Amino acid sequence: MNLFRNSSQNLSDEEIIARYKTTGKPAVLDMIFKRYGKLVFGLCLKYLKNPHQAEDETMSIFEKLIADLKKNNIKCFRAWLYTYSKNHCLMILRKKSPKFIELSDHFAENDEKTQNQREEEAFQRDFYLSKVIKLLDMLKEEQKICLKLFFLKKKTYREVSIETGIPINQVKSNIQNGKRNLKTYFQKIKSMPYEDDTI
To answer: How many separate domains does the chain show?
Structure first.
């Protein structure tokens, strides 16, 4: 497998997929997972709002790819994977709530952008979201807990205070200081290529 990784690093996505279709060996797709695992996780996190579930569904998506890549003739894999992963998440949300409506349907995208450009930008946003989740672990424990409840769980200051036992003034302070620290950390990764998995 290491020999494959060394020989396939410079191959395009489409070339790797063609090799997979020729050999039929799932191990050939390891490089695809390495390139897109974090991006798909960020997308899943955006829709599912739960890091553990996002991890599980990221694995499910790549497991499904083993069969589905054989059935599809894909010209631009990155854009196709974004739509494929997004639809996977939407199906999960619809099962939870039959009346689920994708909010993004209510906001028109810039018509001057191509579908591929929009999907590329969305993948980049979701990648940085996954980075922010990792950066949370670098904060002090109380800051991390308060930020997760406030932003990811959409709790109010009062609800965070009740759930954690932290006085409401301290909750506000933790969120303010946590946001400032996150901004500092984020500046360090802002300029990196979004395929980079340093953090």
So the answer is: 2
